[in-house]
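REQUEST FORM: STRUCTURE PREDICTION
Request ID: SP-0412
Submitted by: Lab K.M.
Chain count: 1
Length (residues): 251
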Amino acid sequence: ELGELTCVEWTRTRSRNQREVKQRISNHLLLRFTSSDCLSDLNLLQLIKAGKEGVFYQARMTRGTCKGHSMFTCKISVRLKHVDMEVSIMRKLMHHKNILQLLDWNATAEPYILIMEYVSYGTLRTFLQTNRAHLSTDPELQSLLTIASYHVALAMQHLRSKMVTIIHCDLALRNVMVNKFPWEVKVAEFGLARDLTRMQRVPLRWYPPEYFKNNYYSYKGDVWAFGIVLWEMQTFGELEVWLVSSDTATH
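STATUS: Completed
RESULT:
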């Protein structure tokens, strides 16, 4: 069975620090979903974030629902291998309040689509940057950040308990979503998650020293990345290490 989905035309441009994915909404394209109740027009509303693994949008179905939902977080990607891995992992991490839940997906033709539960406030990094002036004067700020940190820790503990050999490998403030305020945050973006036996590229600024010294990584790499996330929170999403080159950051 087929569902109508907004087709996205992809172009890529190289910026100073990252590869940005740009998109232009064109016509409608029929794409195959896995469940028969996700058959409707999916409209992309607001861009949440863009990165190497794809773009995240707030999205809405103009008619019908998907598993009882009409508003979604929609990830669009052109990397089938990463989408397949992400779907496989997210299906095993269902029913945890601090992990963004997968509702449906399309992996039969580009653009590949993941439909996930709706989040109200986008990424935690953007939320902190946007509301810095207000939050910095809030006497409860540290308590709020502690709650957010605890939610991230619960999500990563769940990943470890369900999939012992899998690491997230892209834990960063940009990949933590804010569902409610005061806090309910959810870990997202499992497109780079991998088996411990496989070697792939990594987000350098969030990866531990032993990777660069010995070309070795383990689940402890996620622990290191969690520490960087805590650092990001305290700086409202602005780390000085982002201002230097990758080579300088690794040294």
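NOTES: Confidence is low (pLDDT under 50) at residues 1-32, 35-39.
Reviewed by: T.R.
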